[in-house]
Amino acid sequence: IHLDAWILTTGIDNGISKLVGEGISHYSLLREYPNKVKCIGMTMWGTINENTRLRLKHTSNGNPPPLCERQIPAKIEEDRETIELNHTHCILFDSGKLYDYLSDSQRNQFVIEACKDTGDGHT
Fold first, then answer.
1. What are residue 40's DSSP bridge partners?
2. Can you give the residue ranges of the TRPM SLOG domain (predicted)?
3. Does residue 56 fall inside a structural domain?
4. Closest CA to 39 of 57, 16, 61
5. CA distance 45 to 80
6. What residues form DSSP beta bridges with 90?
7. Which residue has the higher pLDDT, 113 or 76?
8. How far, in Å, CA of 56 to CA of 49, rounded?
9. 77, 43 contact by CB (below 8 A)
10. What is the DSSP letter of 112?
């Protein structure tokens, strides 16, 4: 079986994105096809919660200490999203705004550009 499909979601840990990520994880385990299907979460940096942003900043190389500090006071409880961990890839766009949501235009442009690159056998 040749399964080089790409599935694009918002990549956040609720709703359809969560179900898709979990479904692909279960399918991979049951069918013994690890990472054959690429599940790509595409969302805005400002959509995810402060704790997730801090965790990503700390695990990335090259962030100076001032960039790894909280932007939102810890006493303020955020009702924001986390990244769905069963996705194989996550692309975060940054508009410079908190609570900004990704429009379909960014996903559409990603698909257009990915489809142009046919030389590597992935599209």
1. 8, 89
2. 4-101
3. yes
4. 16
5. 11
6. 41
7. 113
8. 11
9. no
10. H
pLDDT tens per residue, range 6-56: 889 988 888 999 999 888 887 766 666 555 778 899 988 888 887 777 777
The answer to the question of residue 123 being in a domain is: no
Domain contains 89 = yes
| Interatomic CA distance for residues 86 and 77, integer angstroms | 25
Write down the pLDDT at residue 19: 92
Residue 62 lies in a domain: yes
75 CB-near residues (< 8 Å, 6+ apart): none
Range of the domain at 58: 6-70+78-116
At 95-118, the pLDDT tens digits run: 887 777 777 788 888 888 888 876
| 31/7 Cα distance (integer angstroms) | 18
Q: Whose CA is closest to 7, among 42, 39, 34, 36? A: 39
> What is the token pair recorded at 99?
């609570």
Residue 70 pLDDT class (50, 70, 90 cuts): low
Number of structural domains in the chain: 1
**E strand spans, the chain:** 6-9, 38-44, 89-93
